[in-house]
Amino acid sequence: QMADPFLYNTGERSPYGCLGHEVQIEYLKAYVCRPSFFTDKAVIVAHDVFGWRFPDIRYIVDLIASHGYITICPDFFKGTEPWKSTDHWSDFADWMKDHDPTKVDKEADVVLKYLKEQCGAKKIGIAGFSWGGMAVHHLMLKNPQLTAGVSLYGRIIRDSEERYNLLNPTFFIFGEKDHTISLDQIFLLEEKLKQYCKVPYKIKVYPGQVHGFAQLKPEDMKPDDKPYIEEARKDMIDWIKMFV
User: Fold this and answer.
1) Domains of the chain and any CATH numbers
2) Dienelactone hydrolase domain spans which residues (predicted)?
């Protein structure tokens, strides 16, 4: 189904010292970062194929927390191995069968319960990247407890009418040069949302950007890409602030 890896070149990544801490929630491990002041607003971050320990995703968790949200990235892979850049692409389809981004409902419920009961969260949004972007699209169709979603370059899967009936405001972020998502697919998504979606939504394509662009840490950004990366992040935070 996919001609090209649904991955991006992780290249040389700089180390990252995290600001949050790890917790155990029922059967899930999770990384949590809290703002320095009390808030009853929270954001769940859905990681990509590289899992909840990937430094880039922890950087994003800390970034969202710095805007005043209890931010949590649970291990949606439930302790199984994330994809590694050294793994063989030929095994990816099999790996994906065991790591289905549309089978995250139970984990989402566990985390929502924790945020409400243990953290006092009253409004909860979700942002997801790549694999996690697909999980966000799925959850925004299924879980009314999530008051807003941001899906960053989640592949657009299975065309059916149910794919467009979003329950709450959802923002789709894409890179223009993403080798896993064609502009045709994005135009189709927009057309179908116009037709079926009854809540606010937004689709934005960032010029020249490749898959995975928005989660780069500052020291890993190329100067030409930096303005678009920063814009995408600001847009993500603005959407969350508007609805969460």
Assistant:
1) 21-243 (3.40.50.1820)
2) 29-242
